[in-house]
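Following up on my earlier thread - several people asked me to post the actual chain instead of describing it. Fair enough. Here it is, all 665 residues.
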Amino acid sequence: MTSKPNKLIHAASPYLLQHAYNPVEWYPWCDEALDKAKKEDKLLLISVGYSACHWCHVMEHECFEDEDVAALMNDFFVCIKVDREERPDIDQVYMSAVQLLTGRGGWPLNCFALPDGRPVYGGTYFPKKQWMEVLGNLASMYRGDRGRLETYAKQLTDGVAASDELKPSEDKKPDADIVHQSVAKWKKLLDYHEGGPDRAPKFPLPNNYLFLMRYAFIQQDNDLTAQVRLTLKKMAFGGIYDQIGGGFARYSVDGIWKVPHFEKMLYDNAQLLSLYAEAYRCWRDPLYRDVVYQTTSFMEREWLSPEGGFYSALDADSEGEEGKFYVWKLDELKELLGDDFELASAYFNINERGYWEHGNHIPLRHDSDEQIAERFGVSNELLRERVDVIRAKMLHIRNNRIRPGLDDKLLTSWNALAVSGLVEAYRAFGDDKFLKRAKSVFNFLMNQMRRVDGGLHHSWKQGSEAINGFLEDYAFTISAALDLYVVTLDHTYVDLASEFTNYSVQHFYDGSSNLFRFTSDLDAPLFVSKIEYQDNVIPASNSQMAHNLSRLSYYTGDADLETKCLNMIQMVLPMVSGYGSAFSNWLDLIFGMQLPKVEKVVCGKDAVHRLLQMNQSQYEPYVVFDGAVAVEQTPATKNRLQEGKTVLYVCKDRVCGLPEELSGD
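Reply from S.P.:
Thanks for posting it. Predicted structure:
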């Protein structure tokens, strides 16, 4: 480390600030750095990571804090640090290049490029010796064999561009058979003993299980139902779930959900709120309720900003050790818990099952409340009271430890996912605190993340320059607005969804592909412009936009939006049956379109309350809900208000039955 800061010292990103005192002459992504590379005729090194990334920290300590390594980097390269959460557009294009080169990706991502930004070589984590060899070899090649690097640059640029070239299906139309074929292949890749995918590491992938849950429910697929429920239980019982403080880590490094990669991300927890809340509506398992309430408490306790939005992440490391904040020594717990240690040991497996390494235990669950209560000869109610006391004691001690680093960026897309998760929790449990928080976070987005031209910012931090929004920001904000409409019947949310959709069509839509580009036409172009269509840990921005267009078409009566949605589906249709996990949000949309179109429309002064009751009493994943309290503002509510009455209209494939008056409670 050096006492003299580099160009990152004025950054807003906590990840960039972590590198501000490296001896490497880091730049943020900016015109100054790109111009310097051209002027001095040097290769670019684009190094991408994020604040909660354990291996990013390791490479920093081994390489970027080393004076000899830094000298080599400074002499021959213009070095740019990128926060992948702040600039997902940059991460996408260079990640695609590295994946083409190596067949794999991840963070830290290190990609070398010509001064014009076209990539020539890259990889992920490099230990010091290998890193110095790479630096030396590339510097020598740039001086002595530049034509070879030009060839690499052309091949990689063409490859990255080609990865987004889609051809629409001309001989197929969306149908249920495509969905069934995809699920049949997918089921062979699932783990029926430990849940999740049949591999390690294991990521939660909430959008995968939302679709599989809905599909299994509609198809009455008992095997798939059992697998999804097993997955939800194993994740909630595993070390990947913070048994003491609530909330999920990003993934487990093993195949049994035991040892987490300890960082916690807002996007995971927001989506898992949606998953577990909807699963509760489907199966009424009290475990899911606990997960939703505990995770919400964690998010509000650890991430809620004074402005009303949620921060982005908690680091995996504290005091230089991964997971140190979260694990426990046996003697420490015996002293803390006294007579309660025996129960805590059984409940949280402070034993061989929960043992990790170096004398540390990861709290996790194996037996149900009923099994533990029977073993200790107490009622379920008394068990829960005692476990709550144990949790509170452990949380109090843990809160006095040195905490993991907080990434205090506020991101539009991730906060919008949180709004949707909180709305789903409200639909499941009817607890006003969820709706109140959802509205508050959405209001933060509208107050702090709006651009003067009506668009959205991507990232915001007090006193720093905001970053222009990407497609994901619009996709999830539109979805959040429509989710809020369904539980409030406040047409303001439909109006906002329409405004952001129109903005997206104007600035992101690519007529040649019938899809949306990830970056707007207002942004300076990178070496290629990406189209994100494969679902991953977060649904693809295009798959979410397709959902939005279909939903908004219904609530506005704009048939052109539905046409755009169908055109988008046609572009990805040739691929969806091959690898379901990467197209689960598309499959969810296609599957829903093949079912009879059922609408439930409630009109009258009690409409909001009645719609909430319907959502709580019966799980209907593909039913469209609408209504009106005093003003008929959507096509489905026209001429349906009856003075002094609250009435229900049930429609199937646009044919509606006679209204049913809803009276009493």
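Residues 380-399 form the longest helix (20 residues). That should answer part of your original question.
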